[in-house]
Structures are given as structure tokens and as C-alpha cells.
Design goal:
alpha/beta, Rossmann fold, single chain, 10 strands, 10 helices
């Protein structure tokens, strides 16, 4: 029991270290490659369990030993200048992998960013069935025998056949009297959400910008999965034309064409209409771009945004990732057109350190 208590305490210390450094983990994608289905492996500095070390008797106490007052402490080469030459002992900066559940990680994220709980909108979407014992049948295992129904069936039979004696009321069920509890599968409503990611993959979006998007999307997914029973993720890429793709293609495609944001908005609107009825789904749209768009395309893009995407979504988040090649004009045009719309949230992400503030801005409204 003492060992188990010490292990629990040690785990609490490790979790505390992760919480202290969560901002570093948020802004750097070092854990994404270690993600499993239900947990993620996080590298943290190795922590040694405190323990006593016993010295030799008669070896002196603190401040005793050879040497005079003012002499340097330690042996030559022990200092930070590294003049002692190469060593053969292992270093002290080892990292250890700590496995943390995605649910626990989401709780840490919520605490760190002070994120409000989401209140789902719309009706629930049926995604599962639940077995409920709400009927009776003639056959079944003895463990499910319905004693009251069996007794009443036997009593009716004995009364109808004249075998019931009020002065000696013995009720002896036979095989055809037995009744067993049975079940039916009934729909179990669960509130669901879909996250739709849109990204410009034209030549001006470099691998560094895509890594920022990938890191931010990991934390967005982690938080939303903690708020809903099920989360569907969809991915749309575009340059001058758009298409729906899988997750790997989303993060590893780079095109050399121009940019028409309206093409992505149209594919997104068609996807929602076909697969995610607004009354049944909580819809989250996250768009990432470097702010480039073909000038005359803004008008068509804003029509689709105002007429279809904003009304359909819980929230529409636009993240502008700074690029050495992008103009950065689109976010200003968005503000001018829809700056007063409460469903639109915009964020400028100059580098990886900007991920922290961007996530807080996107998810901080609790919608």
C-alpha cells in the first residue's frame, strides 16, 4: 500500500510538471507524433524519487575536511567551462515519456486557457443504440426469468383447470408458465459535432505554416472531443480550386496555382448540406490562410460566408498564418465585411508562439 501511495504521489508530481510547462507543449508540436487513440506520450525532464544516501562513519560533517578557508570547492575540471575533458558518465538531462490521456490533456488545456464549457446547440444526432429490458417472452436463460409473471401465469392455469385449492395454495409453475425478461434496442441520442478544416495550399503556404496549423488543430480536436460524445473531422484544401481530402493529404499537399477562397467555401457549404444537417449537428469551421486571395474573388467568398457558412456554424474561425509570400489582406477585408458578426472569430498567428493566444481566442467563447 505504501508503494502504491508513493506511485500515485509521483504521478501527481509528474502531472504538475506537465501543467507548469503546458504552454511550451501547446506552442511546440513535439507530442503530436506520439499521439495514440486515447492517449498521448509527452517527454518531460526525468524526475528521480527522493531517497537517503548513507555515508561512512567518521568521515566528518558539513564544512570539515582538507583545505583552507577560501580554497575553491571541487576538483579541477568540475566547473562549467568543460575544461575537464570528455567523461564517461551519463548526463543528467534525460527525458522520460509520460503517457497522458487525451481527456486529461483537454482538462489541463481548459484550465490553462480558462476555456468555458461548450453548450451544444440544436437537436441530438442518433449515433448509437442502447439495450433496454422492456418486454417479456416465453423463452430465455434462467437468469432472466420473470418470477412475478411466471407465478401469475401458473396461478391462472391452475385456476382455469380447477387445480387451485384456496385451503392449500401451492403454485407450481410448469414449462409453459415460465416468462423471461427480454430487451429491445432503442435509439440513444448523443450530441455530435463536426470540425471542418479549410486551408490554402498554394505556393505561398510553406511547410512551417502548415506545421503551425497542424499543431493548433491538434489542440482544437482535443478540446472539442472532450465536449462532445463524437466528433467528425473533415478537411478541405484549395488553391484556385478546392476539394475534400484526408488528414494526411491536408497537411502534406502544396500547389503552385493561384488562390480562390470562394472555392473552399463552396465545397464546405455543399458538404454541410449533404452530410451535416444544421438542426442535428454542432458545426465548427476553422480556416487557415496566409491572407492571399484573388482580388475579385472576395465578393463571391463573402456571399457564401454570409448566406451559408456563418448561419450554419456554431462558430467560424479564421486563422491567418504569417508567410513571407502572402499579402495578408484577407483578414482586413473580413473585418470590414463581417466584423460585427458574433460567430466570426479571427486570429493572426505570426509564428508558433502565437498558437497559444489563437487557441484561446477561437475556443474562449464557449460556443
Amino acid at each position: 500500500m505504501e508503494i502504491e501511495r508513493d506511485q500515485r504521489r509521483f504521478k501527481q508530481i509528474v502531472r504538475g510538471r506537465i501543467r507548469e510547462n503546458l504552454r511550451k507543449y501547446i506552442t511546440h508540436g513535439e507530442m503530436i507524433g506520439r499521439k495514440g487513440k486515447e492517449a498521448v506520450s509527452i517527454p518531460v525532464p526525468k524526475l528521480d524519487v527522493p531517497r537517503f544516501r548513507f555515508g561512512k562513519n567518521g568521515s566528518g560533517g558539513v564544512g570539515q575536511g582538507d583545505g583552507e578557508e577560501g580554497d575553491a570547492v571541487g576538483k579541477p575540471g568540475d566547473g562549467p567551462d568543460g575544461s575537464g575533458g570528455a567523461g564517461s558518465e551519463p548526463g543528467s538531462g534525460h527525458l522520460m515519456e509520460v503517457e497522458v490521456s487525451l481527456e486529461e490533456l483537454a482538462a489541463m488545456l481548459g484550465d490553462e486557457l480558462e476555456l468555458p464549457r461548450i453548450e451544444p446547440k440544436g437537436t441530438a444526432n442518433v449515433v448509437a443504440e442502447k439495450s433496454k429490458y422492456n418486454s417479456v417472452r416465453q423463452t430465455g436463460p434462467e437468469s432472466l426469468k420473470h418470477f412475478k409473471r411466471t407465478y401469475l401465469s401458473a396461478l391462472r392455469r391452475q385456476i382455469s383447470t380447477g387445480n387451485y385449492r384456496p385451503d392449500d395454495p401451492k403454485i407450481v409453475p410448469i414449462k409453459r408458465d415460465k416468462k423471461y425478461r427480454s430487451w429491445n434496442d432503442i435509439p440513444k441520442p448523443q450530441v455530435n459535432a463536426t470540425v471542418i478544416y479549410l486551408m490554402d495550399v498554394s505556393g505561398s503556404m510553406t511547410d512551417d505554416q502548415k506545421e503551425i496549423v497542424r499543431t493548433e488543430a491538434f489542440w482544437i480536436d482535443t478540446w472539442l472531443a472532450s465536449q462532445y460524445k463524437g466528433v467528425e473531422k473533415r478537411y478541405i484544401i484549395h488553391d484556385a480550386v478546392a476539394k475534400e481530402v484526408d488528414e494526411h493529404t491536408f497537411y502534406h499537399t502544396r500547389e503552385s496555382g493561384g488562390t480562390r477562397i470562394s472555392s473552399a467555401y463552396q465545397v464546405c457549404a455543399d458538404l454541410i448540406e449533404k452530410s451535416f444537417p444544421v438542426a442535428d449537428w454542432n458545426i465548427y469551421i476553422f480556416q487557415f490562410s496566409d491572407g492571399d486571395n484573388w482580388g475579385d474573388d472576395n465578393r463571391q467568398a463573402f456571399e457564401l460566408l454570409g448566406e451559408k457558412l456563418l448561419p450554419a456554424s456554431n462558430i467560424f474561425c479564421y486563422g491567418q498564418v504569417e508567410s513571407p509570400y502572402g499579402s495578408g489582406d484577407f483578414i482586413d477585408a473580413l473585418h470590414q465585411e463581417y466584423g460585427e458578426n458574433e460567430k466570426l472569430v479571427t486570429s493572426e498567428i505570426p509564428d508558433k508562439d502565437g498558437i497559444y493566444k489563437s487557441i484561446k481566442k477561437f475556443l474562449g467563447k464557449g460556443k
